[in-house]
Amino acid sequence: GALLHCHPFKSCQDLFLEKTLRAEPQKESQNMRFGTLAEPFLLKWFAEEYLNSTLVTGSQLRLFKGHAAATLDGIVHNGTYKRRSFVAAPIDTKTIGRSGKRPYHEQFGRGGTDEVPPHIYYQVQLQLTLFNEVSEDKAEDGFVGILDLQGRADTLFRVPWNKETGDMLCDVIEDFYTNFVQKDIMPDEYHD
Questions:
Q1: Maximum Cα interatomic distance, the chain, rounded to a whole number of Å
Q2: Which residues, 6+ apart, have CB-to-CB distance to 174 below 8 Å?
Q3: In angstroms, rounded to a whole number, what is the distance separating the alpha carbons of residues 143 and 113?
Q4: According to the model, what pLDDT value does residue 190 have?
Q5: Counting beta carbons within 10 angstroms of the beta carbon of residue 34, is it exposed (0 to 12), middle (13 to 18) or buried (19 or more)?
Q6: What is the pLDDT of residue 100?
Q7: Are 70 and 62 in contact (CB under 8 A)?
Q8: DSSP line for the chain
Q9: 125 near 166, Cβ under 8 Å?
Q10: Beta strands 74-81 and 153-160: pairing type?
Q11: Residues of the chain whose pLDDT is less than 70?
């Protein structure tokens, strides 16, 4: 999301500093800490309650393609969502509260849709693309489970895989690493 100018908390310059190991450590907010502690429970909850599945991988799994990398919170297998069966799907969880210029929870649409903030949409597309590169069981959809700390309760979003978007993200990331990170050039702006 940072490279596509749609991440609410990180710029491409922040990403450059992070990837060149020069970023200042980020102070963890209460919402962030709660999300970290609650993640194992939330993964299990969304897998069982929404997807009629068991969580196969409940720890973070790193996937790579060139310099593109994605972390999966979990993978669910042999489940159903809205009477549609699936063999495998990545699942990510988020705890949200009121932060940023616009309350974060307002950026999500109706549950069951792909109406998530752009940076999360791109995150899921990258996860799906890299997951499908290495998995025998191809995923058509990725899921994002949301627990709203401001009272919206729990909601699951289904994001269908768009291979073209995933491939574009891999290309953008590869270009960023090749032309900025490896050459140690801080980008003024990044134009994809």
A1: 50
A2: 66, 67, 68
A3: 10
A4: 55
A5: middle
A6: 45
A7: yes
A8: -TTTT--SS--HHHHHHHHTT-PPPPPPPHHHHHHHHHHHHHHHHHHHHTTS-EEEE-S-EEEEETTEEEEESEEEEEEEETTEEEEEEEEEEEEE-S-TTTTGGGG---TTSS---HHHHHHHHHHHHHHHHH-SS--SEEEEEEEETTTTEEEEEEEE--HHHHHHHHHHHHHHIIIIITTT---SS---
A9: yes
A10: unpaired
A11: 57-64, 68, 97-105, 149-153, 189-192
Note the residue count of the chain: 192
Write out pLDDT tens, residues 97-152. 655 445 666 788 888 889 998 888 998 998 899 888 888 888 888 888 887 766 65
- In 3D space, the residue among 1, 19, 8 whose CA is nearest the CA of residue 185 turns out to be 19
The separation between CA 63 and the C-alpha centre of its own chain, rounded to angstroms, equals 12
119 CB burial (10 A radius; 0-12, 13-18, 19+): middle
**pLDDT for the residue 45:** 87
Task: Tell me how far apart the alpha carbons of residues 85 and 123 are, in angstroms, rounded to a whole number.
Answer: 23
